[in-house]
Amino acid sequence: MTSPNRLNGGLIDRDQPLNFIFDGRQYSGFKGDTLASALLANNVRLMGRSFKYHRPRGPMTAGSEEPNALVELRTGARHEPNTRATTAELFEGLTAKSQNRWPSLKWDAMAINDRLSSFLTAGFYYKTFMWPTSFWEKVYEPIIRKAAGLGTLSHQPDPDNYDKGYLHCDVLIIGAGPAGLAAALTAGNSGASVILADEDYLLGGRLNSETHTIGDESGADWAAQTVAELQTMPNVRVMNRSTVIGSFDHGVYGVVERVSDHRPKPLTGKPRQILWRVYSKHAILSAGATERPIVFENNDRPGIMLASAMRSYANRWAVTPGKALAVFTNNDDGHKTAVDLTTLGVRVTVIDSRENAPSSGSYETIAGGRITNTAGRLGLTHVEVTTTSCTIRSLEVQGLGVSGGWNPNVQLTCHQRGRPQWDEALSAFVPGGVLPKGLVPAGAANGVFSTQWALRSGQQAATEVLGHLGKKSETIAFPEAEDAPAKIEPFWHVQGAKRAWVDQQNDVTAKDITLAHQENFVSVEHLKRYTTLGMATDQGKTSNIAGLAIMAEVSGKNIPEVGTTMFRPPYTPTAIGAFAGRSRDEHFRPVRKTPSHFWAEEQGAVFVEVGMWLRAQWFPRAGETHWRQSVDREVLQTRNSVGVCDVTTLGKIDVQGDDAAEFLNKVYCNGFAKLAVGKTRYGLMLREDGVAMDDGTAARLAEDHFVVTTTTANAIGVYRHMEFVRQCLFPDMNVQLISTTEAWAQYAVAGPNSRKLLQKIVDPEFPIDNEAFPFMACSEITVRGGLRARLFRISFSGELAYEIAVPTRYGDALMRCLMKEGEEFDVVPYGTEALGVMRIEKGHAAGNELNGTTTALNLGMGRMVSKKKDSIGSTLSEREGLNEDDALKLVGFKPVDLANPVPAGAHLMTKGSPVDAKHDQGYVTSACYSPNLGHHIGIGYLKSGDTRKGEIVRLVSPLTNVDHDVEVVSAHFIDPEGERLRA
Amino acid sequence: MRYSGFRVIKEALTGHRGWGPAWRDIDPKSSYDYIIIGGGGHGLATAYYLAKEFGKSRVAVLEKDWIGGGNVGRNTTIIRSNYLLDGNEPFYEFSLKLWEGLEQELNYNAMVSQRGILNLIHSDAQRDAFIRRGNAMILNGADAELLSTEQILKSYPFLNVDNARFPIMGGLAQHRGGTVRHDAVAWGYARGADQRGVDIIQNCEVTGFKIENGRCLGVDTTRGFIGAQKVGACVAGSSSRLMAKASMRLPIETHVLQAFVSEGIKPLLPGVITFGAGHFYCSQSDKGGLVFGGDIDGYNSYAQRGNLPVIEDVCEGGMAILPMLGRARLLRSWGGVMDMSMDGSPIIDRTHVDGLYFNGGWCYGGFKATPASGFAYAHLLATDTPHQTATAYRFDRFATGRMIDEKGMGNQPNLH
Amino acid sequence: MLINHPILGPRDASEFVYLGDANLIHRPDWQAEDALAQFTKYGYLRDNPAGEHRELWFHEQGDRSWLIVTRNTLTHEISKVEMARDVASAEGRSK
What is the CATH number of domain A491-557? Predict the structure, then answer.
């Protein structure tokens, strides 16, 4: 296959041809090509369509700032929209498709918008689509939305992996052009730990795109050798394909390494990308500069690109957009493109806006000329040049390079809200204001544009940083290099242009900016937001300055007075997958498994997520077809004989020290000082604002030793809170805390036969009959002939019950043992569902009741808040709003028609009152079917509920179409006198 | 200048030379009846309603920078009224009703788009809480619907139900919720207020209050002293800094919230979706960008920028429920500073200084409140009585124990 | 952000949990005559400065110590890190 636009030379490997497909057609390129360079080599200039007007577009740049040549890369689940053809490395079999066009790139029906452009100016939508009233959402917006967006997502899960890593270094060097390489050599020689990161796959920056020499070598050769030398240094980590996306506090940088994007798919075991969090002591920003365009009539046709990009394509990729080219420049740099392309045998005409433009013998220069129009629907065919004498010339060209000067890549200097400063001599913003701490800009990123001075600048920056680190480096004598002064005469746009593009992707024209000014959207942020200038995927890299310049002109200000918008991370758009890493799908959060998990799995348990934990929800048995059958059975069997439930997930906190009791007196609203050794007490913990925070038990194992339990959900927060109380409020108390949630496996053994079962495993020297070990007793014991354990006679179910704890590694064995020894009692394992049923039957509060807005008073425990002592929350719990006469009280609900459910989340209304928020009397917090009572029950909060027992109230849940009567009853449905648990 | 179909066509055909400024740039007068400090969404809406609903003519909005530059210009554009508590729900429902008529009210298309908001449910306890909330919404006259997973998958077929760490067990939908073009809200109110004679004064920072004998007589600004009968502070994010000039300490901390937008992609998400087991919510803009966010960074900050761990956390949430997002790119992040109040709810109230009023504490939910906040604040300023939907937003609710704590997190602002 | 833990050296801020204003160690006397007013102020009112801020962080994924960090809320720069217990103890807060 011929490649008509391929030149000689370049940094491509002609021995490695690669086939690829674009929009269904097969082409070939070489290793080292990007998709854009390979397409240009095949004389394909049209690669995309713009966002709003669907104008035909080709590549404007040769780098990551590309606004136009965005394609959909790959197929299937790896399909990836908005991929810059200018950075997509070619690989064998690459498949790409153009986007945002229908039915084809050449014939795009939506290009009708271009014809209607006089209606579709900046902000047009704010003024219209309002009539008739209902049409905006029904007609107009659906049409607009349908047209929105650029590429498509696959709707399939991303099949690739992403990793995260952490790196530490003395110096992070951002960008491996001449300044970065010089800095890396200098810092590397000193022995400092260095990371050199560059977004490109080939390090060297502009050295690979220019014909400059360094000493006797080409810049590219020098760069390659320098990189090779750096790679031999053990203290230097060289990272290509690695974009520094953001500068964060305290020297932390985000770096995304594209490990596999240059391959058809990642190698086995390799991630697609890695997000590195780099902790640096210092950083050197040597990220170079980005060329900016000049704005003129129809400046957006395929074939029109930045002059530096044209030079990159020619020198690095040996490609030209055509055989006859023009360059439009306001500075000397544009002439380099003419020189280089002419040398490669391409005819070039230079239009230089400066009347004193330099002239050359090898190409024609039109000094003081400007381009006033272009032609070519799907690709540039002609440019119209107006000379100083106002004569108009038409040049037949296939490519136009535009050079409006260079903008230092200052973005990372602004990520911590620094603002760049305007440099009049360079007509550009350079790093200024408050830079991120430890960051030193160098080279073109700091406005130092010649190669010679970039090398020196990099070395200087490294020397400065090494000074801070107390390290020394010998001064390297770099060979002579290109040292052309940057001569520029600001020229931003050609006057009188009607349709001249400033932001090419978003189709913001010079006229839009004038209109924004006319409507008082003058502040730079208003300009941006009103016109969408700079909000395209290039983040304004190719558009912002020209936009500011035009606004400055029409508002009679200078550019720095108009201002610059904020630069924010990421530096270039970054795959969302890279930020998520492995924390996705089922690995979104870690899974915590209980000690009996594997045993429960063997039993076929159904599991449920409780925070990070997986807990057995119920244990289905053969023949059970509905979860209720399993749960009812577990409840009944427990209440009739004995059941076992893994309650390890409850938080456990060991409290030890002389002041342990006094400390618990502070954190619990009820008293603990007088609790006898060997006894357990229910404790209610308040937040300082007087609202209930958590409840649990505290068991006194010794004078100076308590074991506190918390709810599963609050285990971490309660421990944190207790440490706060200990360290910050009562620092001189002699008390120590440690979380032992993971250290002990704990099982509830409940039911009338629970004692008999435990007696089979508890060693006989520890009697547990009702007298020796009454309700609320606790003790350190041994089981099974000497295994240390803890036994608590506490009950959540309302039955005679115990909780027994053993070191976690014996948890599985204990469960199996309890099951085996319990066979004679027909022991049943029960899950969280049965646990929940039994605690609702007993009227015990849990998470649904302790919802962060309820007080001890609401819970019916108002009298527990001791007034005789200071405890967290006791003072603020006295506020009037928390003690109103008609305060919510926890009560039970029983359906009047016993066939009806009592759904949680339903609201309660007084009989006969209107059903609305004003007459709301409360709500149901927890509900279940009670197999013991044979009907549904619920508990919840009702205004003055404690005095309304026996009243019939109306339960409504309009959301779920429920409306019937329930009777207010005690929340203690089962054994209200507590005889069972004391048995 | 009134916008109309005729006008749009005429201007298109005549080169758009006839469009005038959306609002006038004006020098401050020596005194006003009402000064609103803060040209954000709430401040501009307050001025608009003061002029329109309460017939006040001598009104100025003082903005230290450019109007709409605070949180109305940096949010995720969501509107909804899916609140639980009686102190909140009527207010947000009032706001949603005002949104529904906003385009016609302002003659400005802020692109109110009622595409629906969906809160996913991942546990039984969460379902119970959402049922309670959905019922509270309906009892307050709002709309709510409980959806099954199957119903959700019809609109969001790509949701991760197969490999989810936390199962999707349904969702609570509010179909009247949606999104609004956020900047346009500020501009629309500014234009409407300007047309009714309100002076909008940009680049005019208040540097102090003139308070004599317990009465506020006006404000010192970077453009001189401006007298006023009544001064209304409306600078959420900077409330503590401003009110410190009147020797007030507030039940507020300032925190940074980051938000994110992806590159433009073809229509994908029909509405707003929130992931209840992680910190992630997402919608798609009319331009195609996925607009998403999550938790606040969690530490006091006025820096309008955040850090990497929160970006990662938010994207993890996204990849948990929408694992196709891996191949979409995050285009831009931004940070806003917000008034995080002690119970997660706002304050619209008088202060201990006569003639000085306060509106703030919006946490990260202020955008959706813009119309009602403006209306209620105008009501308070004009009549000295709270609007009927905003009676609970008092300063003294912390002293009396009448907090409005939707999340039940207590007096810890970064948990609301 | 990095927090330079007085014992453990610099640690990533994501290992810590933030609470807020370090004045939260100044818990009022419950027996004071105006205890309710004092507790209301303590619980609900904050200086919230734009600038230097003393604040409490808990090293949850570390040694579980509470730290008082002096950090600038405009720049996020940290100028001082202390053990909260030492500070509280030095201020004579105890049982």
Answer: 1.10.10
